[in-house]
Model the fold of this input.
Amino acid sequence: MASGLGKTVTAALDVWDWLSGRSGRVLYLCHRQEILRQAQETFKSMVGPDRGFGYYCGRKAHRRRQFLFASFQKMQGGYREFERGEFDFIVVDESHHSHARTYREVIEYFRPKQLLGITATPDRTDLQDIRGIYGDEVFALPFEDALAQGLLTEVDYHLMADELQNLEILERPIGRVSIRGLNKRLFIPRRDEEVVRIIQQRMGEVQDPRVIIFCQSVMHCDRLAELMPRSYAVHYEISRRRQDVRLERFRAGLANTLLTVDKFNEGIDIPEANVIVFLRSTTSRTVFLQQLGRGLRRHPSKDRVVVLDFAANCERLQMVNELWEIIGAKLTTSRRNSIDGGPKPFKLLDLPQSRFTVSTKQILEVIKAVRSGYTKEVLALQLITLARALGRVPTTDDLRLASKRGVCAHEATFRRTFGSLYTALDAAGLRGYKRGYKRKELVQQLKGLRKQLGRRPTRDDVNQAAKEGRCASAATFLRVFRSFAGALNAAGIRSRAYSYRKETLVGYLHDLTDELGRPPRWSDVRKASRRGVCPHPMTFERKFGSFSIALAEVARLVSR
Done:
């Protein structure tokens, strides 16, 4: 269900209908407290405020309330405090994250009568299908359909492309060049001052502008906030209280611009926003639609949303062009006739007066020319050639490295052309990847690897063996057994995580603190584990509940 269509309202209505004539407890799960607060207000307005509402996030733990709104972060450490069948109805917001270990662990623990997943982006970039958790879709309304049907605010989309370094690139043969190389040859960086000038110029053309700007980094966000009057920066380095204050001031009209990095990608409802600015480049369609969706909810104060896209790269240009074409194709005959000569749901515009503008059509033709050689036959031949050079079936990492060297297309090209990397390998006659490993087969692989190594295999050992085609990857073991330690136990290989005492683990962290001169980070412990001087950081998580608790134990020891 596309952003801006009221997924939370739909969920609340579903819960209300289910509770009619029966009693039961409801759990609403999400990964951000901002979303939980908005969801609770929505549920109160739909089912009534007298039902008993509470939070289970941060320092709040209202465990006995009928409607409990919980964060995954809090629930991961405390879900065993609840009975497995304690909640009758569970709603999982932004459910496309559900394949993450922290999410799945919580979801699979509970045994509700009803489990509802809601998301605007069910299709994950890693090809894992959440329908395996929630079942088939009850209702689906893709972003393109919602716009074509007039259910979202009309969009005026301006592609703000940079000046070209070399205009002749559009006229001469491309030759052997990658999309990555094409980006470097076509686009050059912009000056923040010029970008701010253009944004302010466009804001002057919108009545009562409310602007959300997606920046490249926290530093970039703060720098632009200094250049723009009546603006607030909102990101993770600012306290939650200050974030809430700035958000409320923005909604009240005391500021007209919010600058962020990815804070408002998901779940935040700001229907007043009528200008969206992209300064952050992304090749993820999911992230792109989430950010665009912040301005698409209908509101009495606006009749359209203006999008200024400065994140010029080949992928973005093609992404926007495809979106424009799909929406046009999905317009029903009646609706197309009704809007002929009038406003369109998605207008792709040029700005001839801007020095940033180039011919979008020309660039798209160049991109097509670059990718025209990537037929299925050519891609399959590239896989075969790479496999011969490696002496084994190429992995995802192999493809990425080969694409950087210009040997073959990027791994994403194979996924886009064939649907998945597994299908591409099958088409090339390379069946080294298996999607449906059985537990018994994986157990035998671990036993064989232990015998070969003469010791307990680590994740790195498994991944190295996977690259050589001798076993499945560590990710496969995690998916099947839920943890690598669980896989080792199933193979009769006792994980060291279960044999370490807490005192011993604290000693390891204490020694590492002395070595570094500061408390170690997760990455520090992982590097130390690869050197064989410390257990893996996941060991500390399993033993203490979290890595931060383990560090707190070290701090307590030092303070004595």
Summary: Residues 163-176, 337-342, 351-360 have pLDDT under 50 and may be disordered. The two ends are 55 Å apart (CA to CA). The chain has five domains: 7-140, 146-368, 373-427, 439-496, 500-559.
